[in-house]
Amino acid sequence: MKDIAILLYYFAFVAQIGATILAFAAFRFVGKYRIGWIILAIGLLLMAGRRITPLISIQETGSYNFLDAILAALISLLLVIGIFVISKIVKDWQEKSRRLEKLLTFDFLTQVFSKADVLKKGEIEITSPEKGITLGSDKVKVSGKTLKNHKVQVTLNTAKPVEVISNGE
To answer: How many helices (H) and strands (E) does the chain have?
Structure first.
């Protein structure tokens, strides 16, 4: 039984280190939640240290608690699985969030950026300026002068240029 308890404590220690590594690895993709993941990883590292003390006690005194060894191994295994699953969920959530953001900023059917994106980025390039052009809202205005029926090319946020015929003076 003593050997099994030692193996369980070693397994618990390795699993705790694995959970710590997974938590630190998740740090690169959790974005604004990094502080929470750092705290979690440090807590897991400290818990790994706690798995060493029963091993030292068994070596020095020969006494052990078999139930504690089973619980330590089980808890450590569940933590590794939990950290792994949660980090996968966060990765998936962030990928879906990126895709949704892309869908909200650009209409692929009309090849036009959304009004909110145009207003946010404010990158509007007029190759041939037109007097009093209003784009999407009266908040975005471009002014200039061209001859009547002059072609105007408008590029919004690196989308395909849109050519418009001037009805100016």
So the answer is: 4, 7
Structure token digits, residue 101:
């953001």
With a threshold of 0.90, does the pTM exceed it?
A: no
* CA gap 20, 34 in Å, rounded: 14
Q: In angstroms, rounded to a whole number, what is the distance separating the alpha carbons of residues 169 and 166?
A: 9
Q: What are phi and psi of 154, to 5 degrees?
A: -115, 130
Structure tokens at 85: 């699953």
pLDDT at 138 over 50: no
Q: What per-residue confidence (pLDDT) applies to 107?
A: 66
In angstroms, the CA 12 to CA 78 distance is 10
Separation of alpha carbons 62 and 141, rounded Å:
82
Give 84's pLDDT tier (boundaries 50, 70, 90): very high
80, 15 Cβ separation under 8 angstroms: yes
Contacts 24+ apart (CB under 8 A), 90-99: 90/26, 90/29, 90/30, 90/33, 91/29, 94/29, 94/31
Q: Is 11 in a helix, a strand, or coil?
A: helix
